[in-house]
Write a structure and sequence with these properties.
Strand content of chain A: under 5%
Strand order of the largest sheet of chain A: 1-2
Largest sheet of chain B: 9 strands, mixed
Distance between the termini of chain B: 71 Å
Radius of gyration of chain A: 25 Å
Order of helices and strands of chain A: HHHEEHHHHHHHHHHHH
Number of strands of chain A: 2
Structural class of chain B: alpha/beta
Oligomer: heterodimer
Largest sheet of chain A: 2 strands, antiparallel
CATH topology of the largest domain in chain B: D-Maltodextrin-Binding Protein, domain 2
Number of domains of chain A: 2
Number of helices of chain A: 15
Helix content of chain A: over 70%
Radius of gyration of chain B: 31 Å
Strand content of chain B: 5-15%
CATH class of the largest domain in chain B: Alpha Beta
Shape of chain B: elongated
C-alpha cells in the first residue's frame, strides 16, 4: 500500500496526477483529456493483451478441460486445482528448480556481465572486435542455442566431452576432477549447471551491453574527481561507478529475472526437464501439464502461481530500491 | 419523382434478375429448397453439373440425400474426381517414401492430395487444434498409436467402419484380413476391452501405416568373431551385453533409450511386457510397483549400464544412431532399424546386421507402435479421404511402399518371397508379430498424463540414481492412482452419474411390447442417476421415417434411438449414429461390471455391429453402433396338446416340417399346419428368407452378384409356397400380427418365426394357448441357420448429450436390468439371463433359444444400405407375384435378380471392375 501512495505522491508538481484522473470536472481541461486520450491506446492494449488473458487464465483454472473437448463440456472444479497444487510435490520441486536456476543465473550473469563491461569500457586496440564478439551469442535464436549446446554437451558425440576425455587421458591426474566423459544432460547433478552455462553464454552479453551503455553515460567529471581524491581502480568501481549504475543494474536484474522465470525454449530443446525433474523449471512444467497431460485448467492454475511468484519478487526488488522514485528525486 | 420511382423499380428488377440467375449456379441449394427449384431452368440442367464442379464431396455426407447415383459401371473414384483432400503426416521416413506414390493416386483417381508434413514432436498439437475446430484443414490424419484413445474419446476421428459399411466404396480386393492383426488392433481399434484393446465393443478408426514391433538386431560380425550365441532369453541378453561391454574394445553391449519422459518409459515397458508385468490390473489399480515391475526397472538399469554413453539423455534417434554408427553390438526396439541399417547416409553397418526374436522371459511379447491413419471427424470430404486411405494401404501400394523404403502392414507383403530375399528381417518380423502385445501399454485417454509426466520422471529418477527402483515405482504408483481417481476410474456409479444429473434425454422407441415393458424401468434409472428420460413411442411402421427426419437435422430431438436391425447399415452409412465404440473408449464412463461378452454374440453382431465383412457382418473393420434391445431369433413353437393327441413327432428337418404341416391341415379339424406371413412387401420377403437361409441359399454371392434365382432360391420359394398352402386362411395378406394371432388363437399347430411368440403365448390378453406350447429348434435342411432380428438401440449422432445417452443404454442393458425386463415381460439379450436356472424354470423356451443362437445366421439377409430398395420394392413384389400364382418361382426370382442387379449397379457396386 505504501508503494501506491508513494507513486501517487510523486508527480505532484505536474498537472497530470492520479487525483485529477478521478475528478471528472477537470476533463474540461484539455490538458487532462488530451493526456487521457493519448494514454487510451496503451491502456486498451494492456487490457486486451494482459488483463483479459490473465482473467481468462484464472477462469480456466476453475475447470477441468483439455484441448479437443468442446468448451461447453468443461467440468467445473472450483478451487480444486489450487488445492491440488498445495500437495503436488512435482510443482514444489519445480519451484525449487526454478529458484535455483534463477539464482545462479542472476548472480553469475550480473557479476560476469558487469566485469566484462568494466574491462572493455575504455577504448584500446581492437575493442570494437571484442565487443562484437561478446554480443554475438545474444543474437542467436534460443532454439539454435539449445541445439548447439545439446550437441556440444552430448555424451556420445559431443565436442566438450571429446576434449575433456582427451585431456583426461593425456593427464590422468585430472581425471578425478571431471576430465572424463561426463553425462552433462543425463546427470541430475550436471544438467542444471549445463543449462546455467548455456544461459550465461547467451545472456551475459545482454547485461554487458546495458552496463557498458550505462558506464559510457556516466559523467566523466565524477570518476575524474574520485581519482583526484585518491581512489584506486577498485575503489572507483565499487564506490563511484557501481552506485551510480545502481538503477540501471536493478532494471537489468528485473528484466532478466522475469525472463528467466519464463525461460522455456532452451531447456525444452536441451533436457525437456529431465533427468527426472532436475531441470523442470516452472514454465516447462506448465507447458507439459497443458500440452502433454492436456490438463489445461491445472496448467492455468500453476501459471497463476508463476505470476504471483514473479510479482512478489519484482515488487520486493522494487521496494529495495525503486529507480523510478530515485529518478524523480533527481 | 416519377423518374425516381421508375429507376427504383428498374434497380429492383435488375436485382431480382441477378438473384434468379444466381440460383441455379448454386447447386448445393437446388435440391434442398424446392421453392427455388421452380425458378431454376429445366430440371435436366440441374443434373448436368459442369465438369469443374463434378465433385461436390461436401454434399455427400448430407444424410437425407443419398449420394447421386453413379453411372452404371462407373469407377467409384469418378464421383470424387477433382476433390482436394489435405493429409496430415509426420515427417518420418515411411511417410516421405509413401508421399512418392501420391502422383499415381492422383492420376488414377482424379482426387487431388496435399500433404502437410509436420515434425513428429509437433504433430499432435497441430492435429488436435485442427481436429477440434468445427471445420478443420485436415481430411486424413496419421497419428502415433498411443494417441488413438484420446483422439477417439474426444470425437476427433470419424469411424472408418462407417465407410466400410458402404460396400460400394470398398474395393472388393482390399482384404482387411490380410493386414497384420497386431498392427490393426494396436494402431486403430478403439473401444474394445479396456477401451483400447480388441473386443466386441471395439471399432476401427484407421488403418496402420508405418507401424512397428520390436525385434532384436545384432552385429553378425561381432557375434561371429567372438563366438557369441544370439540371446533368446532376457538372462542371456543381459549376460551377452555385459560380456561385450567388457571384452570388445570401443563397443558397448546394447543400445537403449533412457531420456527422461516418454523415452525411458518406452524402454521400461519394452522389458516389462516380456517379463510378464503390466501397468494396471483389471480394475485399473496400478501394479507396476510389484515384484515384476521392480525387476523390469532393474533389467532396464542393467541394459542402460551396458548401453552407449549418454544413455540417460538418449532418445530413439540417439539409440539408433549408436547402433548404426557401430558403437553397440545389439539393438532391441522398433524393427525400423532394419531399413535404417541399409541406408548408407546414416549407417556404417549395412550388411553386418542379423535379426532375431525379441528375447523371452515369462512371455515372448513384443511392443506394438508406430502410426496409423484415419479420417478427421470434421472433414467435409470423408469419402474421398476413405478412398485415399484404402488406396494407400491396398496390397499393391503396400508392396510399392516397401520397395520405396517404407514399412509393410500386410501379411502378403511380408510373405512375398522376392521381398524376403531383399529384406532378411521379414520372416523374423512376421514371426514376432504373432507375439505382438496390444496391451503392452495402456492406451487410455489418461495415458498422456501418466506416461511422460509421472512414469517418465520417476523412472529417470531411478535410472540416474536418485531413487531406488522400488521407491521410484511406489511414488509413481501413488501419483498414477491419484490421476486415475481424478479421472473417475475408481468411482463408477453415483460419481459418474453426478456429472450428468439434471440432463434430459429423449428416447425414440417403437411401441412394441418389449419397449413398453422396459419403459417401466425408467423411473428407477431417473432415481439412480438424476438423468431425466422422455420416451417418444412411435408406431412401429412409422418409426424409421420419423427417426430419419430427426437424425438428419443438424440438431435433432432424439438422443437415443432404437432401430430394427435391418436399418443399421443405412443409419450408419448415412452417419446418423454415433459409434458406441467411442464411449467404450472412455473407461471412466464404462460400468466395470457391464461385461459386453455376456451379451449374446448373435444379437450383438446382427443388431449393432456395422462395417465388418460385407459392411454388415463381423470382421476386422467393424465397429459397434448400439446394443441389442428386444432382439430375436427364430425357433419352432408347436402345440404340445395337438402333437401328443396325434402322436406326432416334432419336426427336425424341413421335409418333416412340410409333411407334418400337411398332415395336420388334412387330419386335425379346424386346424391348419403352420402359421406364416405372406403379405406383399417386407412380410413375404421375411418369410422367404427365413427358409432360404437353412436351405443354404443367399441373396448375393461374394461379389455382390444376385444369386437368389439359383436352384436353392427357387426351392426356398417353393418351400414357402407349400407352407403358405398349409397356413392360416388369408395368409396372402398376413403380416407378423396375423401370423402370431393365428397361432395364439389356436388356428394353427406350428409357428416358425421370432421367439417372441413364447412371451406372447403366456399373455392371457392375446393368447388362448398358454401352457400348451412346446419349443424346438428351427428345422434344419442344408444348415441349421435361424434368422436374427428385432431391435437394437444406440446414440444419435446429432445428440448433444451423448454421454448421458450412453449411460442410459448401458444401464438399460446391464445384467441386473436385463433380468428385470424379462420379469416385466420383455426379451433378454444376455447369456447370463438365458442361463439363469430360476428364469429357465419360468420360461421353458430359454434352453431352446440358447441352443438356437449358436446357429443364428447374421448373414440371412444383406443389411447393406441398398437393402431398403431391394427388400420390399423388388423381392416383396416378385415373391408376392409368385405366391399368388401370377408367376412361376423361377420367373419371379429371375425378374427380381435382374432388378436387383440394376439397383446394385446404380449404387456403384460393380464400379471397381472399371476402376482396375
Amino acid at each position: 500500500m505504501t508503494q501506491v501512495t508513494r507513486v501517487s505522491d510523486l508527480p505532484r508538481k505536474r498537472t497530470l496526477s492520479l487525483a485529477t484522473f478521478g475528478a471528472f470536472k477537470s476533463f474540461a481541461d484539455p490538458k487532462t483529456y488530451v493526456a487521457f486520450l493519448f494514454l487510451l491506446p496503451a491502456v486498451a492494449i494492456l487490457v486486451v493483451g494482459l488483463l483479459v488473458p490473465l482473467f481468462n487464465a484464472f477462469d480456466l483454472s476453475m475447470y477441468r478441460w483439455s484441448i479437443g473437448v468442446p468448451w461447453d463440456k468443461r467440468q467445473f472444479i472450483g478451487w480444486a486445482a489450487f488445492e491440488r497444487m498445495l500437495t503436488d510435490d512435482y510443482v514444489h520441486t519445480s519451484i525449487g528448480v526454478t529458484l535455483q536456476y534463477a539464482f545462479w543465473i542472476m548472480v553469475l550473469e550480473m557479476v560476469l556481465g558487469t566485469a566484462l563491461a568494466l574491462m572493455l569500457e575504455r577504448p584500446f586496440a581492437g575493442v570494437a572486435v571484442f565487443r562484437t564478439i561478446f554480443i554475438l551469442p545474444y543474437m542467436v535464436s534460443p532454439v539454435v542455442v539449445g541445439l548447439i549446446w545439446r550437441y556440444m554437451l552430448d555424451a556420445r558425440v559431443g565436442v566438450i566431452d571429446h576434449y575433456l576425455e582427451a585431456i583426461g587421458k593425456a593427464l590422468p591426474f585430472l581425471q578425478p576432477l571431471g576430465f572424463t566423459r561426463l553425462e552433462w544432460l543425463g546427470s541430475p547433478d550436471l544438467a542444471l549447471p549445463a543449462l546455467v552455462l548455456t544461459d550465461l553464454w547467451q545472456w551475459t552479453p545482454f547485461i554487458f551491453i546495458i552496463v557498458l551503455a550505462g558506464l559510457q553515460g556516466l559523467p566523466a567529471e565524477v570518476t575524474e574527481a574520485s581519482r583526484i581524491d585518491g581512489a584506486n581502480w577498485l575503489q572507483t568501481i565499487l564506490f563511484v561507478k557501481l552506485p551510480m549504475l545502481r538503477s540501471i543494474l536493478l532494471i537489468t536484474v528485473l528484466m532478466r529475472l522475469i525472463d528467466v522465470f519464463k525461460a522455456l525454449e532452451v531447456i525444452f530443446i536441451m533436457t525437456f526437464g529431465g533427468p527426472g525433474l532436475s531441470t523442470e523449471v516452472l514454465s516447462l512444467h506448465i507447458y507439459k501439464t497443458a500440452f502433454t497431460s492436456q490438463e489445461l485448467g491445472y496448467a492455468a492454475a500453476i501459471s497463476v502461481l508463476l505470476i504471483a511468484i514473479i510479482l512478489v519478487l519484482s515488487v520486493g526488488l522494487l521496494r529495495i530500491s525503486n529507480p523510478l522514485k530515485e529518478r524523480s528525486d533527481l | 419523382m416519377k423518374t425516381m420511382f421508375r429507376l427504383l423499380i428498374a434497380i429492383t428488377l435488375l436485382g431480382m434478375l441477378v438473384t434468379a440467375c444466381g440460383a441455379p449456379a448454386e447447386p448445393t441449394k437446388a435440391p434442398s429448397a424446392p421453392a427455388q427449384t421452380t425458378k431454376a431452368p429445366a430440371p435436366t440442367q440441374a443434373i448436368v453439373v459442369p465438369p469443374g464442379q463434378a465433385a461436390q464431396p461436401t454434399k455427400a455426407p448430407e444424410p437425407t440425400k443419398a449420394a447421386a447415383p453413379a453411372q452404371p459401371g462407373e469407377s467409384p473414384y469418378k464421383k470424387y474426381a477433382g476433390a482436394k483432400i489435405v493429409v496430415s503426416w509426420p515427417s518420418l521416413s515411411h511417410f516421405q517414401f509413401a508421399a512418392k506414390m501420391i502422383p499415381d493416386f492422383e492420376k488414377e483417381t482424379g482426387i487431388k492430395v496435399e500433404v502437410d508434413f509436420t515434425e513428429y514432436a509437433k504433430l499432435k498439437d497441430k492435429q488436435i487444434l485442427e481436429l477440434s475446430k468445427p471445420t478443420g484443414d485436415y481430411d486424413v490424419v496419421a497419428w502415433t498409436v498411443f494417441e488413438k484413445g484420446e483422439y477417439v474419446a474426444k470425437g476427433l476421428l470419424a469411424p472408418l467402419s462407417q465407410y466400410f459399411a458402404m460396400p460400394a466404396l470398398v474395393d472388393p480386393d482390399y482384404d482387411p484380413d490380410d493386414i497384420v492383426a497386431g498392427y490393426l488392433q494396436s494402431g486403430s481399434v478403439v473401444g474394445g476391452k479396456k477401451g483400447y484393446m480388441p473386443g466386441v465393443t471395439g471399432g476401427l478408426y484407421g488403418v496402420p501405416f508405418g507401424p512397428e514391433t520390436s525385434i532384436l538386431a545384432y552385429r553378425k560380425d561381432i557375434f561371429e568373431q567372438n563366438k557369441l550365441k544370439v540371446p533368446e532369453t532376457y538372462d542371456e541378453l543381459l549376460q551377452t551385453a555385459d560380456w561385450i561391454s567388457k571384452n570388445v574394445p570401443n563397443m558397448k553391449g546394447i543400445a537403449s533409450r533412457g531420456a527422461s519422459g516418454h523415452q525411458i518409459v518406452h524402454a521400461y515397458l519394452l522389458h516389462l511386457s516380456p517379463l510378464g508385468g503390466a501397468i494396471f490390473d483389471d480394475k485399473w489399480n496400478p501394479v507396476f510397483n510389484n515384484e515384476t515391475g521392480v525387476k523390469a526397472a532393474e533389467t532396464l538399469k542393467k541394459i542402460m549400464d551396458n548401453a552407449q554413453p549418454g544413455v540417460t539423455s538418449a532418445d530413439f534417434g540417439a539409440e539408433t544412431n549408436a547402433f548404426l554408427q557401430g558403437q553397440t553390438a545389439m539393438f532391441l526396439d522398433a524393427h525400423k532399424i532394419a531399413a535404417m541399417s541399409r541406408d548408407p547416409k546414416q549407417s556404417k553397418i549395412d550388411g553386418k546386421v542379423g535379426y532375431a526374436l525379441h528375447p523371452k522371459d515369462k512371455t515372448g511379447l513384443s511392443e506394438t507402435g508406430g502410426q496409423a491413419m484415419g479420417i478427421a471427424a470434421n472433414s467435409k470430404k470423408k469419402e474421398a479421404a476413405f478412398l485415399f486411405i484404402q488406396w494407400m494401404t491396398s496390397k499393391k501400394a503396400d508392396k510399392k511402399i516397401v520397395e520405396l523404403g517404407g514399412d509393410a502392414i500386410r501379411k502378403s507383403t511380408y510373405n512375398d518371397p522376392e521381398l524376403q530375399k531383399k529384406f532378411p528381417e521379414y520372416p523374423v518380423i512376421l514371426k514376432q508379430l504373432e507375439f505382438a502385445n496390444p496391451d503392452w501399454r495402456p492406451l487410455i485417454p489418461e495415458w498422456q498424463s501418466i506416461n511422460a509426466p509421472i512414469l517418465g520422471v520417476e523412472l529417470s529418477e531411478f535410472a540416474t540414481g536418485k531413487k531406488t527402483a522400488k521407491q521410484a515405482l511406489d511414488d509413481a504408483a501413488n501419483k498414477v492412482r491419484a490421476e486415475m481417481d481424478r479421472a473417475g476410474y475408481y468411482s463408477f456409479g453415483a460419481n459418474t452419474y453426478k456429472k450428468y444429473a439434471g440432463a434430459k434425454i429423449v428416447v425414440s422407441w417403437p411401441s412394441l411390447s418389449h419397449f413398453q415393458f422396459a419403459a417401466k424401468m425408467i423411473p428407477d434409472f431417473e432415481k439412480e442417476t438424476g438423468i431425466k428420460v422422455e420416451v417418444d413411442f412411435t408406431e412401429y411402421a412409422k418409426l424409421k421415417d420419423k427417426q430419419i427426419l430427426e437424425l438428419s437435422k443438424p440438431a435433432g430431438d432424439y438422443d437415443v434411438v432404437a432401430w430394427t436391425v435391418f436399418e443399421k447399415g443405412e443409419y450408419v452409412a448415412k452417419g446418423m449414429l454415433a459409434p458406441m465404440s467411442q464411449y467404450f473408449a472412455m473407461p471412466a464412463l464404462v460400468d466395470p461390471n457391464y461385461d459386453p461378452d455376456d451379451i449374446t454374440k448373435a444379437f450383438m453382431y446382427s443388431g449393432a455391429v456395422v462395417g465388418g465383412k460385407k459392411g454388415y457382418l463381423a470382421g476386422p473393420t467393424q465397429a459397434l453402433y448400439g446394443v441389442p434391445f428386444g432382439p430375436e431369433t427364430s425357433i419352432l413353437a408347436y402345440r404340445k396338446d395337438i402333437f401328443e393327441q396325434n402322436k406326432l413327432k416334432v419336426p427336425e428337418t424341413y421335409d418333416e416340417l412340410l409333411q407334418t404341416a400337411e398332415w395336420i391341415s388334412k387330419n386335425v379339424p379346424n386346424m391348419k399346419g403352420i402359421a406364416s406371413r405372406g403379405a406383399s412387401g417386407h412380410q413375404i420377403v421375411h418369410a422367404y428368407l427365413l427358409h432360404l437361409s437353412p436351405l443354404g441359399g443367399a441373396i448375393f454371392d461374394d461379389k455382390w452378384n444376385p444369386v437368389v434365382n439359383d436352384a436353392t432360391g427357387v426351392k426356398a420359394a417353393e418351400t414357402l409356397k407349400k407352407i403358405m398352402d398349409n397356413a392360416q386362411p388369408g395368409v396372402n395378406t398376413a403380416d407378423f400380427g396375423a401370423e402370431t394371432n393365428a397361432f395364439l388363437q389356436g388356428n394353427v399347430a406350428m409357428f416358425v418365426d421370432a421367439h417372441k411368440i413364447a412371451a406372447m403365448s403366456r399373455d392371457p390378453k392375446q393368447s388362448k394357448i398358454d401352457g400348451k406350447v412346446g419349443y424346438a429348434l428351427h428345422p434344419k435342411d442344408k444348415t441349421c441357420l435361424s434368422e436374427t432380428g428385432g431391435q437394437a438401440m444406440g446414440i444419435a449422432a446429432n445428440s448433444k448429450k451423448k454421454e448421458a445417452a450412453f449411460l442410459f443404454i448401458q444401464w438399460m442393458t446391464s445384467k441386473a436390468q436385463d433380468k428385470k425386463v424379462v420379469e416385466l415381460g420383455g426379451d433378454p439379450i444376455r447369456k447370463s439371463t438365458f442361463g439363469d436356472p430360476a428364469l429357465q424354470a419360468k420360461f421353458p423356451e430359454y434352453p431352446v433359444i440358447v441352443k438356437q443362437l449358436e446357429c443364428a445366421n447374421m448373414d440371412w439377409r444383406p443389411l447393406i444400405p441398398e437393402w431398403q430398395g431391394i427388400n420390399a420394392p423388388i423381392l416383396g413384389v416378385e415373391l408376392s407375384e409368385f405366391a399368388t400364382g401370377k408367376k412361376t418361382a423361377k420367373q419371379a426370382l429371375d425378374d427380381a435378380a435382374k432388378k436387383i442387379r440394376a439397383e446394385m449397379e446404380r449404387a456403384g457396386y460393380y464400379g471397381w471392375v472399371v476402376a482396375k
